[in-house]
Each structure stands twice: as structure tokens, then as C-alpha cells.
């Protein structure tokens, strides 16, 4: 029998791409990189420049932080509100989504039902979802009517102080996203590990805690980052189902952007820059958490 | 750590299958014994193992551990540990925490579970590897850790599902030695599935030969080779010599002449096929207890250090394994010595 290289043996090195090959590869990706770069870096750059007064609609360009301080109170309140909505939606989506993923990977009929429900939820746009949630849980909505409750007997879920309908809509949509992403990861690897753990004496609950959840952790972290950043920067659901004041950051930014006042445009840009900065910080924290998981290493 | 395992008419038919994957298989493995379930791919041997473990639910039959039926018990309550062909080490745990897994999930304090696990790592000669990530191990090391992890669960029966088949021959030999050491130290009851006759012969005390879901023979390794229960067993065990003839008063008459039954063996009168292992035959003059037959070398094929020499004896072909260096050329007239103790007569 011929000797095969062991796990520690030398692997054959891949042939290096030639200079012309690399150039061609670069040319192929260039259009996508240019467009993405233009939108992301250009967009953020313009907002940043506008927010510090270097691109005024009228008058001299002059560096100033006025746009950041003009609505300081609203900006801080909006930041707190947006963080709260995004955190609540992310945590609930991850808990519900992970539970659904575990049910899906059990492979029973209930699993197939949950998978089908999750798959059906994904293509529904958030705007439609928000309208549907509004029609269901508003004080004049279908659910209180079906229960025979008057608006006074029904809690302020839509436009109320706790932003329940907004969080509910995000959780409904995003938990389906978590369920499918995590189920996809678990389906490929969890069954055999689960059997191994069972044979080592681990009960169902112990297997969940010691095997399934740790194996799902990287997928959950990635999903959580995506959901947080999305719900933090999303406008339409909060606008439709939230109350007029205080405003979350995206609603505040959009109101200022469409305002007729000449100074509002830089102020809207300042809100957008703060939103982007927080999103980038969350992505960095998420990536750091991902690097700390043993599976990622 | 060792219990008696009994299978009583274990049958498993998968949904929609026309034939059972396992058909009324019965055997007993004594406490501390090592049984190899040997069979070709698709013979149902892994299904038997998974049924014992509780991972597959049998259609009928009983599985008894120390006389108590385990049907209805979840895998985690059966007290069995299994090592698969793939090591399946938990990728999120260190080597030591993998071995400590059974202790941890049993509620043992972490420090205690780890101290216990370290002893099992020493047992598989991987002391000092505890803090490593499982990705930093070679294939052989991974399988050693998997074995330590299974042993640390102190199973009543240790189940091995082709655990060494993905390893190269040298590593496999090391693992066989390791298993022998573990058996000497801990005396576990072991059931091992393999498709490798040599592995079964090296590792196991007894072998259960399975094909198409049926148990053909459950016997000691030497008897499986020298006293096969049927031609199918002889062929599955790699036997190459089958000479048709007739038995009369304990003597088999064929192209080879008269071959008498060895002492203690009863050959029924009538048509019967004489089988004798190719490794048992010897080129050269017969010694006491051997019958010599003359023939002509019809073919010779080299197999590394060994040669398979086919000798034509009055129209019957006898295959004889010999050292390649002393293999005679085709056309040479030779004497083949047949040890009478190695002969068996089976129904055609």
C-alpha cells in the first residue's frame, strides 16, 4: 500500500496565480467593488462631510459641530430608544429563532411545520408585516375585536410607550431568519454529535446546553449582529407602529432630511453618522465575540 | 464496567424496506469479552450496534444487559458508549473537556471530572494533550481521545463502530495494541463492528459473522476459519479451497483421494464439499497428521511477500499460500500437504 500523507503531512501547494490571472480576477470584481465602495464609502463620506458643515446647501463651508448639538436632546433620546428597540428585538429573535431551529432539526412533523412557517415569513416585506401587525394588535384591530374588548380595555401596543408592536414585528420577521440560518448550520453537524452526547449519558436538556447551543453559537452571533444593525437603522416599521415622539434615530433622521428648514439637512446627516457609527461598533463587538468562540478558531 | 449482553431474535425492518436489515439475530457476549460483528457493507452490522445503543428501535426481539431488558430506555440511560468511524470530538471543547464530558453531564464538579478525564488520557497515551484544541490533533490521536471519552463514561458495554477503518495500517496496528491494553486493564465488555477479517481476528475473542441481516455463525476466531458452518461462511472468511466429493464412514473421497475426518469431528455420509484454508496448505512432503497429494502448479500470483500458488490435483484446483521467495514456477510438479485437523466437510 502506498503511504498517504498523514494529517500532519505536507499538503501539496496550490499553484500561484499568474500576474495576468490576478489582473483578470481584479477586473472581474472591479465593477462590484466600485459600486459598493461608491455607495458605502461615498454615502457615509458625504453624510460625514455634510454633518460637520463642509457641504452646506447655502453659504460658506465651515467646519462646525452645530448639526450634532442642535438636536442634542432628541439625538440622545433617539439613540437610547433605538438601542432599546434593537436590543429587545435581537434578544427575542435569537431566543425564539434558536428554539425554532432546535425544533426544526429534531426532524419531526412539528419541525417541518416550523420550517415551513419560517420559510413563508422570510419573503414578506417589513412594511407589509408592519401593516399586518398594526391591523392585528392596534386597539381597534382584529384581535381586540375578536375578543370583544373595547379600545380602553386593550393595552397601547401600537403607538404606546413600550413600542411593543414595533418589537413584535421585528421579532416575528427576524426570528424566522435566525431559525433558518441556525437550522442550516445545525442540520449539517448536530445529529451525530447529539447521538454521541446521548451515548455519553447526556439527557436532552444537557445535550441542548452542552452540545447544541455551543455548536449554534457562531451562527447565532452572526445573525444577532445582522438583526441588531438592521433593526437599529430601519425606518418604516418604527414610523408606522411607533408613537410620534420620542423618535428612534432613523425616524428622526428622515424627518430632518425632509424638513423645509435649510439647517436640517446637516442635522439629518449628523443623526445618520451617529447611527452608522453605532452600527459599526456593534459589528466590531460581534466580530470580537465570534473570534472568541472556540468553533471560529 | 463490564456486563453481559444478550441479543434475542433481534429484528429490524426499516420503513418501506422489503427485507429486514437485521433478521432474528441472537448472541450473547459474556462480561469482559470482546465480540466482533463481521460482515460486508450493507450486512446490517451497524444496525445491530445502533439497536444495542438505542439509536435505532428494533422491530422485534430483545436486548438484555445483565439479564435486564433495555427496550424503551433512551440511549443516555443504557450505560453504553460508542466510538464511531469518525471521532466526532466536540469541536467547542478542549481535549480534556471532551474526555470529561460524561462526568460533566452527570453533574460531577468540573475539577473532579477533569482529574478523572486526565487519567483516561494517560491510559490512551495522550497525557499532557488535555489543554489542546481538538483541531490540533492527528487522525490517530483524535480516535484515541474518542476512545478515552467513551471509557471515561464507564460504559457497561463499549460499542465500536468501525473505529479504526479510517486510519492507515500502522496507526490501526497501534490502536489494536491500545485496545488490548485497555482490555487487560479495565476488562470492558466490547462489541465491535468491522468489515476487516484480520482486525476481527486480532481484536476479538469471538466473531459474529453477518450477511444480509442474518447471523451465519458466532464462534471463536480459529473455529470460524477452520470449522466454518457453511460454504457461505468459508467464502466470507476468505476460504479459497472447495473440493466436491462424497463422504463415507467419516472419509471424504474426491479428486484429492481419501481424506479422513480429524479426531472428534463427525462428517455425515453423502455428498459433501471439503474445505481447507489456503494458509494451512504447505508445499512439501507430508508430516504426521497431514495427507500428501501430487499435482502440477497451474498458476502463481505474487501478493507482496506471499504468493498464491494454484495446484491442479487430478482436475481439482487447490490454492496454497506460500512465501513468495519459495514459490514454484508454473508447470512444476509438487506435493501439497493437507493438515487433516484443518479440513472440514460442508453441505454443497
Automatic annotation (TrEMBL), chain A:
<protein>
    <submittedName>
        <fullName>Carbohydrate ABC transporter membrane protein 1 (CUT1 family)</fullName>
    </submittedName>
</protein>
<feature type="transmembrane region" description="Helical">
    <location>
        <begin position="81"/>
        <end position="104"/>
    </location>
</feature>
<feature type="transmembrane region" description="Helical">
    <location>
        <begin position="211"/>
        <end position="233"/>
    </location>
</feature>
<feature type="transmembrane region" description="Helical">
    <location>
        <begin position="25"/>
        <end position="49"/>
    </location>
</feature>
<feature type="transmembrane region" description="Helical">
    <location>
        <begin position="175"/>
        <end position="191"/>
    </location>
</feature>
<keyword id="KW-0997">Cell inner membrane</keyword>
<dbReference type="InterPro" id="IPR000515">
    <property type="entry name" value="MetI-like"/>
</dbReference>
<keyword id="KW-1003">Cell membrane</keyword>
<keyword id="KW-0812">Transmembrane</keyword>
<keyword id="KW-1133">Transmembrane helix</keyword>
<dbReference type="GO" id="GO:0005886">
    <property type="term" value="C:plasma membrane"/>
</dbReference>
<comment type="similarity">
    <text>Belongs to the binding-protein-dependent transport system permease family.</text>
</comment>
<keyword id="KW-0472">Membrane</keyword>
<feature type="domain" description="ABC transmembrane type-1">
    <location>
        <begin position="79"/>
        <end position="286"/>
    </location>
</feature>
<keyword id="KW-0813">Transport</keyword>
<dbReference type="Pfam" id="PF00528">
    <property type="entry name" value="BPD_transp_1"/>
</dbReference>
<dbReference type="InterPro" id="IPR035906">
    <property type="entry name" value="MetI-like_sf"/>
</dbReference>
<feature type="transmembrane region" description="Helical">
    <location>
        <begin position="116"/>
        <end position="138"/>
    </location>
</feature>
<feature type="transmembrane region" description="Helical">
    <location>
        <begin position="268"/>
        <end position="290"/>
    </location>
</feature>
<dbReference type="GO" id="GO:0055085">
    <property type="term" value="P:transmembrane transport"/>
</dbReference>
Automatic annotation (TrEMBL), chain B:
<dbReference type="InterPro" id="IPR003439">
    <property type="entry name" value="ABC_transporter-like_ATP-bd"/>
</dbReference>
<dbReference type="InterPro" id="IPR003593">
    <property type="entry name" value="AAA+_ATPase"/>
</dbReference>
<dbReference type="InterPro" id="IPR050093">
    <property type="entry name" value="ABC_SmlMolc_Importer"/>
</dbReference>
<dbReference type="GO" id="GO:0016887">
    <property type="term" value="F:ATP hydrolysis activity"/>
</dbReference>
<dbReference type="InterPro" id="IPR013611">
    <property type="entry name" value="Transp-assoc_OB_typ2"/>
</dbReference>
<keyword id="KW-0067">ATP-binding</keyword>
<feature type="domain" description="ABC transporter">
    <location>
        <begin position="5"/>
        <end position="237"/>
    </location>
</feature>
<dbReference type="GO" id="GO:0005524">
    <property type="term" value="F:ATP binding"/>
</dbReference>
<dbReference type="Pfam" id="PF08402">
    <property type="entry name" value="TOBE_2"/>
</dbReference>
<keyword id="KW-0547">Nucleotide-binding</keyword>
<dbReference type="GO" id="GO:0015418">
    <property type="term" value="F:ABC-type quaternary ammonium compound transporting activity"/>
</dbReference>
<dbReference type="GO" id="GO:0043190">
    <property type="term" value="C:ATP-binding cassette (ABC) transporter complex"/>
</dbReference>
<dbReference type="Pfam" id="PF00005">
    <property type="entry name" value="ABC_tran"/>
</dbReference>
<keyword id="KW-0813">Transport</keyword>
<protein>
    <recommendedName>
        <fullName>ABC-type quaternary amine transporter</fullName>
        <ecNumber>7.6.2.9</ecNumber>
    </recommendedName>
</protein>
<dbReference type="InterPro" id="IPR027417">
    <property type="entry name" value="P-loop_NTPase"/>
</dbReference>
<dbReference type="InterPro" id="IPR008995">
    <property type="entry name" value="Mo/tungstate-bd_C_term_dom"/>
</dbReference>
Amino acid at each position: 500500500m502506498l503511504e498517504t500523507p498523514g494529517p500532519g503531512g505536507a499538503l501539496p501547494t496550490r499553484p500561484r496565480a499568474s500576474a495576468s490571472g490576478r489582473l483578470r480576477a481584479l477586473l472581474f470584481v472591479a465593477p462590484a467593488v466600485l459600486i459598493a465602495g461608491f455607495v458605502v464609502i461615498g454615502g457615509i463620506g458625504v453624510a460625514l462631510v455634510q454633518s460637520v458643515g463642509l457641504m452646506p446647501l447655502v453659504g460658506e463651508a465651515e467646519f462646525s459641530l452645530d448639526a450634532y448639538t442642535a438636536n442634542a436632546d432628541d439625538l440622545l433620546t433617539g439613540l437610547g430608544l433605538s438601542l432599546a428597540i434593537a436590543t429587545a428585538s435581537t434578544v427575542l429573535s435569537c431566543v425564539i429563532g434558536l428554539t425554532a431551529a432546535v425544533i426544526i432539526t429534531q426532524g419531526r412533523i412539528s419541525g417541518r411545520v416550523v420550517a415551513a412557517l419560517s420559510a413563508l415569513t422570510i419573503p414578506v416585506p417589513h412594511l407589509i408585516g408592519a401593516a399586518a401587525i398594526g391591523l392585528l394588535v392596534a386597539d381597534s384591530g382584529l384581535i381586540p375585536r375578536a375578543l370583544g374588548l373595547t379600545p380602553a380595555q386593550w393595552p397601547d401596543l401600537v403607538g404606546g410607550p413600550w413600542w411593543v408592536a414595533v418589537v413584535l414585528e421585528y421579532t416575528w420577521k427576524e426570528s424566522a431568519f435566525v431559525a433558518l440560518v441556525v437550522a442550516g448550520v445545525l442540520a449539517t453537524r448536530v445529529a451525530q454529535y447529539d447521538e454521541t452526547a446521548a451515548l455519553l449519558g447526556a439527557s436532552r436538556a444537557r445535550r441542548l446546553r452542552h452540545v447544541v447551543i455551543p455548536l449554534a453559537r457562531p451562527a447565532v452571533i452572526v445573525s444577532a449582529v445582522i438583526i441588531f444593525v438592521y433593526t437599529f437603522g430601519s425606518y418604516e416599521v418604527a414610523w408606522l407602529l411607533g408613537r410620534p415622539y420620542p423618535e428612534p434615530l432613523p425616524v428622526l433622521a428622515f424627518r430632518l432630511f425632509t424638513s423645509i428648514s435649510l439647517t436640517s439637512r446637516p442635522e439629518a446627516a449628523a443623526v445618520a453618522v451617529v447611527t452608522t457609527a453605532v452600527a459599526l461598533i456593534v459589528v466590531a463587538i460581534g466580530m470580537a465575540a465570534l473570534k472568541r468562540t472556540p468553533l471560529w478558531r | 464496567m463490564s456486563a453481559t449482553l444478550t441479543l434475542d431474535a433481534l429484528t429490524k425492518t426499516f420503513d418501506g424496506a422489503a427485507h429486514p436489515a437485521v433478521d432474528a439475530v441472537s448472541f450473547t457476549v459474556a462480561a469482559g469479552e470482546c465480540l466482533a460483528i463481521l460482515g460486508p457493507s450493507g450486512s446490517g452490522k451497524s444496525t445491530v450496534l445502533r439497536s444495542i445503543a438505542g439509536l435505532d428501535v428494533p422491530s422485534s426481539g430483545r436486548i438484555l444487559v445483565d439479564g435486564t431488558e433495555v427496550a424503551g430506555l433512551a440511549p443516555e440511560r443504557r450505560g453504553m458508549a460508542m466510538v464511531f468511524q469518525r471521532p466526532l470530538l466536540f469541536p467547542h471543547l478542549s481535549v480534556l473537556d471532551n474526555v470529561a464530558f460524561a462526568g460533566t453531564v452527570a453533574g460531577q464538579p468540573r475539577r473532579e471530572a477533569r482529574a478523572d478525564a486526565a487519567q483516561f488520557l494517560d491510559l490512551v497515551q495522550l497525557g499532557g494533550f488535555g489543554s489542546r484544541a481538538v483541531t490540533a490533533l492527528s487522525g490517530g490521536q483524535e480516535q484515541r481521545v474518542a476512545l478515552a471519552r467513551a471509557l471515561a463514561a464507564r460504559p457497561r458495554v463499549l460499542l465500536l463502530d468501525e473505529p479504526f477503518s479510517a486510519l492507515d495500517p500502522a496507526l490501526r496496528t497501534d490502536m489494536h495494541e491500545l485496545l488490548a491494553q485497555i482490555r487487560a486493564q479495565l476488562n470492558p465488555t466490547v462489541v465491535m463492528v468491522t468489515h476487516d477479517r484480520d482486525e476481527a481476528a486480532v481484536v476479538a475473542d469471538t466473531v459474529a459473522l453477518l450477511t444480509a441481516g442474518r447471523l451465519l455463525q458466532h464462534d471463536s476466531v480459529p473455529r470460524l476459519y477452520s470449522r466454518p458452518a457453511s460454504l457461505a461462511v468459508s467464502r466470507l472468511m476468505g476460504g479459497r479451497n472447495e473440493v466436491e466429493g462424497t463422504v463415507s464412514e467419516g472419509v471424504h473421497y474426491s479428486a484429492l483421494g481419501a481424506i479422513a475426518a480429524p479426531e472428534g469431528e463427525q462428517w455425515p455420509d453423502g455428498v459433501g464439499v471439503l474445505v481447507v484454508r489456503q494458509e494451512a496448505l504447505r508445499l512439501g512432503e507430508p508430516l504426521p497428521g497431514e495427507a500428501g497429494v501430487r499435482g502440477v502448479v497451474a498458476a502463481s500470483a505474487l501478493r507482496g511477500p506471499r504468493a498464491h500458488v494454484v495446484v491442479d490435483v487430478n482436475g481439482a484446483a487447490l490454492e496454497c499460500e506460500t512465501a513468495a521467495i519459495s514459490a514454484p514456477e508454473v508447470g512444476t510438479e509438487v506435493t501439497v500437504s493437507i493438515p487433516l485437523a484443518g479440513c472440514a466437510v460442508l453441505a454443497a
